[in-house]
Design goal:
Strand 1 and strand 2 form a beta hairpin. The protein is built from five helices and eight strands. The chain has a single domain, classed as Gcn5-related N-acetyltransferase (GNAT) (Aminopeptidase), CATH 3.40.630.30. 36% of the residues lie in helices and 28% in strands.
């Protein structure tokens, strides 16, 4: 008997099971529902409300609000790295059918203050919540909101048994890199060594064999 073939079969079966599980989580109508009490932020003179949306349910006007904030925050950084600014490609990524959002709005006037774009996915054959974007308007930065949103996304990820929260960050965004490091994110083993970006992650220590 070829035990290597048996081991490979078991590995494939395990990966297939992980794929099925991620699909199951993606079918949830609202993965933030167990944490509805945390979908508010009332600190530092900010009164904000949050709601979850799948990209497929975001109307065109709200899509434009979201993309405008991303573009305002990130276009110059993209222009200054090898990715370059490719608006059509970025829109396609941000509003892909698997994209999930937490939208943050001012309680008083319902204007957009921030958003999180994420997906439940497999990365390196491991179940992860991949954080694509966390974007804040300048006037709500340095007031505890970014840290609060990171803690919220981690709670959601680990509640749904994701083994890691993973993200990509441009090296030229030095303050952002420092922020993630301060939140105990680490450079992934498969992050390219000599690239213009890092792949960072935080493990779910409740789960073993990660």
């Amino acid at each position: 008997m070829d035990y290597s073939d048996l081991n490979n079969t078991e590995k494939y079966a395990d990966v297939e099971e992980r794929i099925r599980y991620v699909k199951q989580i993606n079918q949830l109508s609202d993965p933030t529902q167990p944490f509805s009490h945390k979908m508010v932020f009332n600190k530092q003179s900010l009164e904000l409300k949050m709601n979850f949306l799948k990209a497929t349910n975001i109307k065109n006007l709200e899509r434009e609000e979201i993309f405008h904030l991303f573009k305002k925050n990130m276009m110059e950084s993209y222009k200054n790295c090898p990715w370059g600014w490719q608006e059509r490609k970025k829109r396609s990524e941000m509003f892909h059918c698997d994209a999930r959002y937490i939208i943050v709005r001012y309680l008083a006037n319902n204007e957009l203050a921030a958003f999180i774009h994420f997906r439940f996915d497999l990365e390196d054959s491991i179940e992860v919540l991949y954080l694509y974007e966390i974007q804040l308007k300048p006037e709500v930065r340095s007031r505890g909101l970014g840290k609060y949103l990171m803690e919220l996304i981690e709670i959601i990820a680990f509640h749904h048994n994701m083994k890691k929260v993973v993200l990509t960050v441009l090296k030229n965004e030095e303050k952002v890199v420092q922020f993630y490091m301060s939140q105990n994110y680490e450079i992934e083993s498969y992050s390219p060594k000599n690239s213009f970006y890092y792949i960072l992650s935080k493990r779910n220590h409740r789960l073993t064999n990660v």
